[in-house]
Amino acid sequence: MNKLNDLLQELGISKVRLAKYLGVSRQMVYNYLELDDLNKWPKEKKILLLKLLDISEESGNTIENIKVTTDYLMNVENRLNQNLKSGGEGDSYLDMRNLSKESQTLLTDIANLIRERLSPDDHKKDENYYVFLYMYHMLQSMDNVPEIKYIFGYMSKACGFTSPEEFKFNEDKQFIFEGILYSALTLYNNGGASRSKLSESHRRFVQEIEKQKEEKLSRTQQLNTIRVQALKELGYSKIDDSNAAEIFEKIAEIESRGSIVGSGDNT
User: Fold this and answer.
1) What is the largest CA-CA distance in the chain?
2) Chain centroid to CA 114: how far?
3) What distance in Å separates the CA atoms of residue 35 and residue 28, rounded to the nearest whole number?
4) Is there a contact between 51 and 64 (Cβ–Cβ < 8 Å)?
5) Who has greater pLDDT, 17 or 60?
6) Measured between alpha carbons, how far is 91 from 81 in angstroms, rounded to an integer?
7) Of the candidates 234, 238, 219, 233, which has an alpha carbon nearest to the alpha carbon of residue 262?
8) Is the predicted pLDDT of residue 61 greater than 50, yes or no?
9) Helix axis angle, 244-257 relative to 195-234, nearest 10°?
10) Exposed/middle/buried for 85, CB within 10 Å: 0-12, 13-18, 19+?
11) 7, 23, 67, 230: which sits with the fewest CB atoms below 10 Å from its CB?
12) CB 154, CB 183: distance < 8 Å
């Protein structure tokens, strides 16, 4: 594998470009290159690498006997660029034109990491699907639930990626939240909590979620009723671009009246 590292360096192929070519994160490329045998790589990634380097029985090349000439370097570069242009890179379907270089790198790394965790080669792919689905839900809710940012920050610190004294959000609130979360996880990890002890607490949690759903459903039904009434009062059958502003104004008027006229009332 030392020879492979030397070859990649001689060819000028960075870990970032190789990661995009293989469709994995940079960290995964580092993990691959730390293995002592290319045969320990995932089969799909090994085939991609050998194709890039023109290593096959037909070519007669091996990593050990490859000599980097101008022609060979150009051929490898062409194969690498062609793959990236045809969709091999993780961000080929993402519009990054208005993002900073750091943001582009972060977004590409996230996309590649998710892609490899959802790959058929990952034995936890089914479980990982729900992990990323829940993460997506959390990202959607960040504006309304600031604690989500604190959870991400805490986990980054707990996993050693970030200094525990670093605070990128509201420092006081983040500090308090991290202290509470640490206490809760310490209790959890030390066996101080059990299903039986927390059954009542979890029951209240379920009730609170169900209550929120009922309130949301009730509000949705109320808005739908108001929308129908607004259409009726204005003599329209549906909302379109030409009447949307007028209908929304009527909806606001009906809400301000504090009462909804029944479907059989012609007023």
Assistant:
1) 90
2) 7
3) 11
4) no
5) 17
6) 14
7) 233
8) yes
9) 110
10) exposed
11) 67
12) no
What's the rounded Cα separation, in Å, for the pair 84 and 17? Answer: 9
Q: What is the DSSP letter of 42?
A: -
Closest CA to 224 of 243, 251, 245: 251
Phi, psi of 22 (to 5 degrees): -80, -15
Other C-beta atoms within 10 Å of 174: how many? Answer: 19
Q: List, in order, residues 6 or more apart from 99 with CB less than 8 Å away.
A: 107
Output phi, psi for 69, to 5 deg.
Answer: -105, 175
- Give the number of other Cβ atoms within 10 Å of residue 262's Cβ: 9
pLDDT band at 57 (very low <50, low <70, confident <90, very high): low
Average pLDDT, the chain: 84
**Alpha carbon distance 265, 267 (integer Å):** 6
- Assess whether pLDDT exceeds 50 at residue 88: no
Residue found by looking up tokens 């058929």 in the block: 120
> Any residues with CB less than 8 A from the CB of 227 and at least 6 apart, and which?
239, 247, 251
The pTM assigned to this predicted structure is 0.53
Residue 241: strand, helix, or coil? coil
